[in-house]
């Protein structure tokens, strides 16, 4: 699982981050995103009953499905057991890394400053999520790439079709697509054709970049 993680993420470049109060059918949501060209889906713990949604999603197709906003070892263990293929944290969480490493599951640790990026590397992160990316812009990722040229960075927070290409050009391995692609109300309503349209619009904005 870890062997394929970075090469595939670098190829696909987009993670849809689902943060919704309700998901009527997680498998249908994943199918809608894939139909629009996004195959990496991060379900966050801010959605109630996340473990059950993960089980539903991975039962249909586990490829590219992970769990985000993971804060504790217990949460990491629960979500890995539910089928998460990778974990994402909002900050540097050593206990999450320990559980993920023991299970052979990749982990993306959140960071912002150079000190935090260094800490994430020391902890064994497979990639480092720079959050909030929009507040600092693509130039900040380019600056981070100076002292950290080989660190796989993922831009998250306020990334949209208008600025995503800039983050990728600045050196990000991937970007996180949030409410522009998966608005909570649209997800809760189960409007899968609209989700597909939004995913397609996002990926087409990156075509050739």
Strand content: 15-25%
Distance N terminus to C terminus? 27 Å
For this structure, the quaternary state is single chain
Which spans of ≥5 residues are poorly predicted at pLDDT below 50? Answer: none
List how many beta strands DSSP finds: 8
Whole-angstrom Rg: 16 Å
Could you say which structural class the secondary elements and strand pairing correspond to? alpha/beta
> Strand arrangement, largest sheet?
3-2-1-8-7-6-5-4
Q: State the order of secondary-structure elements, H for helix, E for strand.
A: HEHEHEHEHEHEHHEHEHH
Percent of residues in helical segments? 40-55%
Query: Mean of residue pLDDT?
Result: 96
The geometry reads as globular
Please give the count of helices.
11
Largest sheet composition: 8 strands, parallel
């Amino acid at each position: 699982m870890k062997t394929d993680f970075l090469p595939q993420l670098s190829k696909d470049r987009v993670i849809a981050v689902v943060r919704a109060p309700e998901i009527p059918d997680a498998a249908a949501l994943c199918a809608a995103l894939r139909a629009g060209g996004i195959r990496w889906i991060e379900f966050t713990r801010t959605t109630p009953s996340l473990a059950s949604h993960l089980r539903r999603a991975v039962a249909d197709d586990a490829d590219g499905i992970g769990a985000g906003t993971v804060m504790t070892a217990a949460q990491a263990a629960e979500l890995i057991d539910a089928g998460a293929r990778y974990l994402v944290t909002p900050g540097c969480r050593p206990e999450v890394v320990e559980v993920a490493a023991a299970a052979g599951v990749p982990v993306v640790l959140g960071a912002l400053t150079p000190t935090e990026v260094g800490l994430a590397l020391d902890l064994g992160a497979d990639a480092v999520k720079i959050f909030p990316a929009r507040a600092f812009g693509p130039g900040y990722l380019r600056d981070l790439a100076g002292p950290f040229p080989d660190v796989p960075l993922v831009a998250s927070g306020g990334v949209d079709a208008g600025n995503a290409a800039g983050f990728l050009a600045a050196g990000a391995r991937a970007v996180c697509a949030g409410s522009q692609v998966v608005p909570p109300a649209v997800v809760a309503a189960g409007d899968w054709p609209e989700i597909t349209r939004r995913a397609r619009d996002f990926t087409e904005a990156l075509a050739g970049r």
